[in-house]
């Protein structure tokens, strides 16, 4: 197995051939993360011209030195079921090291455990349970466990952060399975409150519109961003600038006509909720959301979420991904409200293998590690 740089068109062709892949592993995402140097790489077997694996590598330079952290968010796209992961990861590490990397960080897209909605609700109600990890999973994935074991044996270091969100991509997410399910099936799987709120929004006259073109999203993006900034002020998080979303829309929409979609929920002309959805193959994500503090009673957030789920079902998606959650099930923790909202969809909490580092230049990696620890 050898690893070498490939063109973005070769990379995109490989992504298109997969049933699903993370949008963070598309060539377009490299154009969104402008502060990183981007590179598409492919894995090749001897004598074969077509790649059998691919990845987007983002290189982040250390201050004052020409050395880099090579980052493969939610990747690489390789055969993670292979019992010899060294055959894939060793040539990849050698490739990025030759290009100045002092360390490499990956996010294997493999699931280790799942908890269904009933299990999570029981966990929240149980005073003796405070975290997902303390709750018996509904399902354990043997393949995911083998990946974690192999990574440790090969010298990779887990970057899991207890309790909250990690600095990189979330290890725990919430997903609604869609494969083989109709709109009626998904709606029936929701709790009574979610179904009632969706009906309430429709009865109140909430209208949800969607657009996937650069021109269409561009027309509405300022309205979305204004509401998003309002949401950030209310919920006390730091918002991204409008320019970031413009770059994101232009890059993703140029790659595929239905890669990114803006959904807007209005009531009597007032924007009450808005979201950005992304889809790669059979995997659909809720990426960003915003909601008004006014007219909460018309349930615009439920209406726009249901519109995104229906669009994912219509597109043939296997999963609707509501992205990150924390591990907390403590009713006194402010983060528990996020998982309670998502549990109402009838989906499941999913644990991935998480992010893993391999030091390639140990003194520089230790300095980087210390720097990150000081940043908190």
Automatic annotation (TrEMBL):
UniProt entry keywords in alphabetical sequence: Acyltransferase, Cell shape, Cell wall biogenesis/degradation, Peptidoglycan synthesis, Transferase
InterPro entries: Acyl_CoA_acyltransferase, FEMABX, PG_Glycine_Bridge_Synth
Family, similarity comment: Belongs to the FemABX family.
Protein name: Peptidoglycan bridge formation glycyltransferase FemA/FemB family protein
The keyword Cell division is assigned to this record: no
Single Gene Ontology MF annotation: aminoacyltransferase activity
BP GO annotations: cell wall organization; peptidoglycan biosynthetic process; regulation of cell shape
Superkingdom of the source species: Bacteria
Keyword Zinc-finger attached: no
Pfam family, one: FemAB
């Amino acid at each position: 197995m050898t690893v070498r740089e490939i063109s973005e068109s070769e990379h995109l062709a490989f992504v298109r051939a997969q049933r699903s892949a993370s949008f963070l592993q598309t060539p377009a995402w490299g154009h969104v993360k402008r502060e990183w140097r981007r590179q598409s790489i492919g894995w090749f077997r001897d004598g074969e011209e077509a790649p059998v694996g691919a990845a987007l590598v983002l290189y982040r330079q250390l201050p004052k030195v020409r050395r880099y952290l090579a980052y493969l968010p939610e990747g690489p796209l390789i055969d993670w079921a292979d019992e010899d992961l060294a055959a894939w990861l060793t040539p990849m590490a050698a490739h990025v090291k030759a290009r100045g990397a002092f360390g490499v960080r990956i996010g294997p897209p493999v699931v280790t455990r799942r908890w269904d909605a009933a299990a999570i609700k029981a966990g929240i109600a149980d005073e003796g349970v405070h975290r997902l990890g303390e709750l018996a999973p509904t399902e354990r994935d043997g393949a995911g466990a083998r990946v974690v074991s192999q990574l440790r044996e090969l010298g990779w270091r887990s970057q899991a952060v207890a309790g909250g969100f990690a600095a990189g991509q979330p290890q725990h997410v919430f997903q609604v399975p869609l494969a083989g399910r109709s709109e009626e099936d998904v709606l029936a799987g929701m709790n009574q409150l979610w179904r009632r709120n969706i009906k309430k929004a429709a009865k109140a006259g909430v209208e949800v519109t969607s657009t996937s073109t650069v021109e269409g999203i561009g027309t509405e993006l300022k309205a979305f961003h204004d509401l998003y900034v309002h949401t950030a002020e209310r919920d006390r998080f730091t918002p991204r600038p409008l320019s970031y979303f413009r770059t994101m829309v232009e890059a993703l929409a140029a790659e595929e006509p239905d890669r990114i979609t803006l959904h807007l929920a209005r009531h009597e002309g007032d924007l009450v909720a808005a979201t950005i959805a992304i889809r790669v193959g059979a995997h659909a994500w809720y990426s960003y959301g915003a909601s008004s503090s006014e007219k909460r009673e018309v349930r615009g957030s439920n209406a726009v979420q249901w519109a995104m789920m229906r669009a994912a079902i219509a597109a043939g998606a296997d999963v609707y991904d509501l992205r990150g959650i924390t591990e907390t099930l403590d009713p006194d923790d402010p983060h528990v409200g996020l998982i309670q909202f998502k549990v109402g969809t009838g989906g499941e909490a999913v644990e991935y293998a998480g992010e893993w580092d391999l030091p390639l230049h140990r003194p520089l990696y230790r300095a980087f590690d210390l720097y990150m620890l000081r940043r908190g």
